[in-house]
Amino acid sequence: MKHTFFYLVLLATLVSACSPSQKVTSYWVNKEAIPKEPFKTIYIIAITQNENMKPAVENELADVLVSRGHKVALNSQIYPPSFSAVKQLTKEQLVETIAKTGSEAVLTLAVLDTKTETSYNQGSSYAPMSYGYNRSYYGYYNYYYPVVYSPGYYTTNKTFYIETNFYDVETNQLLWSIQSQAYNPDNFDRMFKEYTRTILMKLREEGLIKK
Fold first, then answer.
1. For a FRET experiment, which of 81, 96, 139, 157 has its CA 20 to 30 Å from that of 31?
2. How far apart are CA 126 and CA 140, in angstroms?
3. Does the pLDDT value for residue 188 go beyond 90?
């Protein structure tokens, strides 16, 4: 059967659900492949170079899903954070691991990239007119320099690029995908909690998980 793939531009409702530092850049769903009933048991995999982040990311997703009546299995509870399924497992072994948990779907969250940019902000100065201090250049310079000169400074900005996918275990099909970026999050934990709420809201709207 030929599947119709729906490529959606940024949804106003989804963007408004994110904080100003977050932006959805791509959203995709295979409407024809979504089953009639939502998935109940979900296997969660976080993919990031930061090993300490993996359990935290998976637990955050799990907490929200469990609170809504789902059963979950966490990859970090089966394999240590330093474990690489791609390097240390065959596809068949990973499929077997997921099957043993009874999971019906796989939810992956990957931090695709982190970019850090440093820019220089040029300083500015203003030379006001004053006949009391401009009669000698030294007197003028000595009086106004510490008052009117604003030195330049460096600003460092960090952007996280995140992708979340949802797969059907039985068919091994990708059903849903979302990409977003978080710009200069002042608190990564808070940013991720907001992101988690956003993606789970969309999964519920698409009928992939329970409402």
1. 96
2. 12
3. no
- Structural class in CATH, domain 6-114+158-205: alpha beta
Q: Rounded to two decimals, what is the model's pTM?
A: 0.72
- Select from 149, 150, 129 the least CA-distant residue to 140: 129
The arithmetic mean of pLDDT across residues 126-136, rounded, is 52
Angle at the Cα of 92 from the Cα atoms of 31 and 2, rounded to 5 degrees: 25
The model's pLDDT over 20-67, given as tens digits with 9 standing for 90+, comes to 477 888 899 999 999 989 999 999 999 888 888 888 889 999 998 998
Distance (Å) of CA 106 to CA 24, 53, 76, 194: 21, 19, 14, 21
> Among residues 42, 96, 104, 95, which one has the least CA distance to residue 73?
42
